[in-house]
Amino acid sequence: MVQKSKKPPVPRIPVPRIDDPAPPKRRGRPRAYEPDVALGKALDLFRRDGFAATSLDDLSAATGMNRPSLYGAFGDKRELFIKSYRRYREDARTAMGDIFGKELPIRERLRRIYAVALDIYLSGESGPRGCFTVMTAASEAVHDPDIRAMVMDGFTELDKAFAACFRRAKEKGELPASANPTVLAQLASATIHTIAIRARAQTPRKELEAIVNGALDVMLGA
Fold this sequence. Notes:
Layout: H1 35-49, H2 56-63, H3 67-74, H4 77-101, H5 106-121, H6 132-141, H7 145-171, H8 181-200, H9 205-220
Helix pairs in contact: 1-2, 1-4, 4-5, 5-8, 5-9, 6-7, 7-8, 8-9
């Protein structure tokens, strides 16, 4: 009697149960970035190249975020520019705030303020970037009323901070009774703007410090 060969068993394909939970779907791009770090990189790019010359592709490459992620986190290019400018002003305020608030002789106080300003203006991996307000935001202020309001607010804030310094110096007898704190504050702010522009043009720090010393002599008397 011939014995029939047995057929190999057909492998069973597991069928998922209807009540098995489906694996969760991944939605969008994972948040693999730090918003504060990304904003800092956008700020660096705007400071270096300005608003018009900075494209969304440039911002995407600098921050490591694609366009949808940029829009979701910061809004459009203009909104990102405004957020970057606010960040710049907050950083500058933090850097100079302690010096404005300390009780120091007026010449020493001003010298320290200008030294911090030069540290900010001369920074940059690809060269000095100057002041965001003077070099970048002021250009956009011509046709954007919101940015213009921010720039003017920055000018006013700086004038008031300097005026408070000169008033205290006058009260302490460091300045003559005829000194006008408001006018002196405007001269002090103008010196800030001057060294910012010259720093962006890569004027050496020693020359910028010489301008500062000359301005101090004019404002305070040699």
